[in-house]
Design a protein that fits this description.
The protein has 449 residues and is of the alpha+beta class. The chain contains 17 helices and 15 strands. A hairpin with a 2-residue loop joins strand 5 and strand 6.
Length: 449
C-alpha cells in the first residue's frame, strides 16, 4: 500500500484555488452532461480507493448491483490510496464537485469536518433499503456517529492478525487438537511459543515477521497491546492527555524483545519469509488472498492477548456522503441504495480478508466456511482503535508523529522510557493543534456519539 504524504495545511491552501482541480483528477467525474447508460434513469458517481484484490471484489459487487438495479447508472472511479485520495475528496466537497458517494477510513471521518465536507446519512432511507443500526457492532456504529448524526456507513473492519504456519507449528508441538495454535494468555507464554517454534524453523528464516522498521505497523501493534493494558490517550472532553507512560513502556519493551531475542529480523521480507517457512508473521488481514494464493497450510488469529485482555488493532472502510450543496433527490437516494446493497452483500468482500461490518453476514453458512476468516471473526468484538480525534485514522497525523517514536524503541535507537515520554509529548502537542479543515482543536470539534 502506498503511503504518500500531503499535509492538511497544503490541502487547505489548495482549497482556495479550485481552478486547479482538474489537475488532481476530477476530470474523471465528468460534468454531468454525459449520457446515462441505456435504460437508466439515475446516475450515482462513486469514488473509492480500492485497488488490487480489493478493487476486483468491489467491481464484482458493483456489477451485481447494476444487474439487479438497471435503472441506476453507477459511475465508479478508483483514485490513489492514502492522502492523495483524501485531498481530492476534500477539494471536491469544498468546490461543490463532490461525487454522490465515497469511501473513507472510519478513523479519518472525525477530522473531515462532518457537516462541512461530509453530509449525514438519512437513516430512514437506509432502513428503507434494509440497513439498520441493529445490524452492526455497537462500538463500530458509535464510531460513525458525530454530534448525534451518522456520517459513515461501515463496510468492514480490517485488523492486524497473527498468521501462523500449521506445518511448522505441528512440528514444534504448538497445534491443539482443533488444528489451531495453542492458546496464549501472557507475554511469557508467547515467548515460550516463539522459542519452540524457532527450533522447528528452517535455517535462514526468522521466527516472526514484525515489520520492526515500519512506522505504521509499529503504531498499529502498539495500539493493540496498549489497549490490552487498558491504556487511554485523552480524557472524554479531549482537553487533557491521559497517556500512561508506564503502560507504554511495557508495550515498547515487549515489542523490542522480539528483536533483541532474535525472533524478528529488522528489514526482512516478512511476507515472503512466511511463504517460505517462517512460522509467524503479524500482518493485516489483506494478506489473506496472498497467503491463500500461495496454497499455504496456515491459520490466522487476532494478535495474542499477552497482557490478559483481548484487543487487536482495527480500522474500517466506510461509505460517506461527500458534501453537496444540493444533496437530495434521485441521485442521493440511489447513493443510499447502492451503499446499503454493498454492505448487505459483503460475502464477496470477505474474500479479501476483511470482516464484513454487516453482522448478519457473519452468521451465514457461507461465511463460516471461509478459512481463515472464520477463525479471526471474533476481532469484531474487541477492536483496538485510535482515539476519536481529528488527527487520527489511517495515514493520519497521529501515526506520522507517534509511529516513528515506536520504531525508534523497537529498533533500539531510543530506550522505552524515553520513547514513552516523547510519545506523551507528541500527544500533548497534537491535542493543542487546530484541524486545518475547520480551525478547531479536538476539544472544540464534534466527537460525541
Amino acid at each position: 500500500m502506498e503511503r504518500t504524504d500531503l499535509s492538511r495545511r497544503q490541502l487547505m491552501g489548495g482549497l482556495g484555488g479550485l481552478l486547479v482541480a482538474g489537475s488532481f483528477g476530477f476530470a474523471a467525474l465528468g460534468t454531468g452532461a454525459d449520457a446515462l447508460a441505456a435504460g437508466s434513469q439515475t446516475r450515482v458517481r462513486y469514488w473509492n480507493l480500492f485497488s488490487g484484490g480489493d478493487g476486483y471484489n468491489m467491481i464484482a459487487m458493483l456489477d451485481a448491483f447494476r444487474q439487479a438495479n438497471s435503472g441506476i447508472d453507477v459511475k465508479d472511479s478508483t483514485l490513489q490510496w492514502g492522502n492523495p485520495f483524501y485531498t481530492k475528496l476534500a477539494m471536491a466537497a469544498a468546490g461543490n464537485r463532490a461525487p454522490d458517494l465515497g469511501v473513507m477510513h472510519l478513523g479519518r471521518v472525525t477530522g473531515f469536518s462532518p457537516g462541512r465536507l461530509l453530509d449525514p446519512w438519512d437513516v430512514d432511507l437506509l432502513a428503507k433499503y434494509g440497513v439498520r443500526e441493529a445490524d452492526f457492532n455497537p462500538e463500530l456504529w458509535k464510531r460513525a456517529v458525530i454530534d448525534g448524526r451518522l456520517y459513515a456507513l461501515p463496510l468492514d473492519i480490517h485488523v492486524q492478525l497473527c498468521f501462523y504456519r500449521k506445518d511448522v507449528l505441528k512440528k514444534a508441538g504448538l497445534l491443539g487438537d482443533d488444528g489451531r495454535i495453542v492458546p496464549v494468555t501472557s507475554a511469557d507464554e508467547w515467548f515460550d511459543v516463539l522459542k519452540e517454534a524457532k527450533k522447528a524453523t528452517k535455517k535462514g528464516l526468522q521466527t516472526l515477521g514484525l515489520h520492526a522498521n515500519d512506522q505504521n505497523f509499529m503504531w498499529w501493534f502498539f495500539v493493540a497491546f496498549y489497549t490490552q493494558l487498558g491504556g487511554t490517550y485523552f480524557d472524554g472532553a479531549d482537553t487533557e492527555v491521559t497517556f500512561d507512560t508506564d503502560k507504554a513502556v511495557q508495550v515498547l519493551e515487549f515489542l523490542r524483545r522480539h528483536v533483541t531475542d532474535g525472533y524478528a529480523v529488522v528489514g526482512a521480507a516478512d511476507g515472503e519469509q512466511f511463504i517460505n517457512g517462517t512460522p509467524f508473521t503479524w500482518e493485516g488481514n489483506w494478506s489473506v488472498p496472498v497467503f491463500s494464493g500461495a496454497e499455504l497450510d496456515y491459520g490466522a488469529t487476532p494478535l495474542p492477548p499477552v497482557f490478559g485482555k483481548q484487543a487487536t488493532h482495527a480500522e474500517s472502510h466506510a461509505f460517506v456522503l461527500p458534501h453537496q450543496s444540493d444533496r437530495g433527490g434521485p441521485a442521493d437516494e440511489a447513493a443510499h441504495q447502492l451503499a446499503a446493497y454493498v454492505v448487505q452483500h459483503a460475502q464477496q468482500w470477505a474474500a479479501g480478508g476483511h470482516i464484513p461490518a454487516y453482522t448478519p453476514t457473519l452468521s451465514t453458512a457461507a461465511y463460516k466456511k471461509l478459512v481463515p476468516q472464520s477463525e479471526y471473526v471474533s476481532a469484531m468484538d474487541h477492536q483496538a482503535t485510535e482515539p476519536k480525534v481529528w488527527f487520527a485514522g489511517s495515514t493520519g497525523i497521529l501515526a506520522q508523529r507517534v509511529g516513528p517514536i515506536v520504531v525508534s524503541s523497537t529498533m533500539g535507537s531510543a530506550g522505552p522510557e524515553a520513547a514513552a515520554r516523547r510519545m506523551k509529548g507528541a500527544l500533548t502537542q497534537l491535542l493543542a493543534m487546530k484541524n486545518p479543515m475547520d480551525g478547531r482543536t479536538a476539544a472544540q470539534g464534534g466527537t460525541a456519539a
